[in-house]
Amino acid sequence: MNESDALKFLAAVKAGKISLDQAVKNLRELPFEDLGFAKVDHHRSLRQGFPEVIFGRNKTTAQIVAIVRGMLRKKSSHNILVTRTNAKTYAAVRKIARSAQFHEACGAIAIERSRESHGIGLILVVTAGTSDIPVAEEALVTARMIGHRAEAIYDVGVAGLHRLLAHGQLLHEARVIICCAGMEGALPSVVGGLVAAPVIAVPTSVGYGASFGGLTALLGMLNSCASNVSVVNIDNGFGAAVVACAINRK
Fold it and tell me: How far apart are the C-alpha atoms of 114 and 108, rounded to whole Å?
């Protein structure tokens, strides 16, 4: 439930369209719904401006379907997002939500129930290489499902900076930039030096042995000399998008 849903609910109670008994039942389940293995946080959208997102990794298909069903029962207008899952789980979710879409590159399931815009400007997602796209796609899908305009520029890393400079207009238009890079993780510093917008750097686990699964990129980004760069955890496209949306929120 978000603020709009809360206002509609209160108006319906006032108009007598929802009985007092039903209103009490709804309020009882508003903070969270206990499924035994999970407590679905129906109150999160009201607190934070966007609903709970289901982290799919290490959850069974049955668990994910049950959580999605619990969210669908609320008849809320908010979108539903499952991250880090697979095609098998998507097939099961689609049986209860025919509008569900699967984003194979990042393993996300998106159920769009609202196209309301919550952003001021553009969130731009940039990758150093093609191998960074799965992390970038997670950021892109997340930002769009939260209700923000998001676009992407792929494969513009430091091995050929002319590719990045060709997108100068879009870089300067962006209100927030999410920059995903593996290897030595240099691209966010370059992007940060070109724009006035905040740059959220996402180290990816792409690279050879001495990249240590993204640790080299993480340390490089934390030591960036571009003062408008901040850093999230390795491969955390979702977290980068949530921070970007908080910056870009109306």
Answer: 17
